[in-house]
Amino acid sequence: MNKLKLMAIVGVMSAALLLNGCGAQKDAPKENTKQAEQKQEDKKEDNNATEKTEDKKEEVSLSDWAGEWNNMGSYLEKPEVQGAFKTLAKKENIDEKKAKADYLEKRKCEFNGLKIEGNKITFTSKIPSENGDKIAETEYKFVEKKAVKHGSHMLEWDVFEAVDSNAKYKVLLMMPIHGEEELTHFHMRYGNDKDELFAKEGWFPTFVKPNTTDKQIIGEIEE
């Protein structure tokens, strides 16, 4: 009798273990599925982040600067703005002649007009409204966005390279358009070596909208 009881107990325990085992096996796929879903979700988030980064890169194009632009330097010899150099000289505690010479050097540029259409730029000898000679016409592609330290400030440049390796200006550094509340303008640099352009100190060719007034130019000089 005791032997029969013992066999019954062993049978019950075996059945319990078997059921638990089945239950564990049944739950295991659920656990694995959850882990797989989480991995898939993480991968999706990583892909989304990558796509956002790529989209941000693709967002930058010359069309952001589309239109006609005047070289600010073309305004700097106008009689109407000469008083601004006197104010600048007092502000910097130097004589007026030096103040003007330094400012002209900072804005120095080989061309006075830009016409930007799509990925193409036409560089002209005069501001666009004066129909000057065409210096160059080049198609550019966006390469990178780079922050560079200039003095105590970090400046962000968008770098463009000419599609044609024989272009007159193989590399352009462009800053975003800003100053809309006072003087809509942007700074740029041009040349053939981007590292040399990044390294230049105090050189900021500047382009303004064709409807810019002398008063706005004066305000920019005196700033």
From TrEMBL:
InterPro entries, alphabetized: Calycin (IPR012674), ZinT_dom (IPR015304)
Ranges for domain ZinT: 56-221
Bias kind Basic and acidic residues: ranges: 27-60
Superkingdom in the source lineage: Bacteria
Keyword Signal: yes
Parts of the chain that traverse the membrane: none
A Gene Ontology molecular function term of the record: zinc ion binding
Protein name, UniProt field: ZinT domain-containing protein
Organism of derivation: Finegoldia magna ATCC 53516
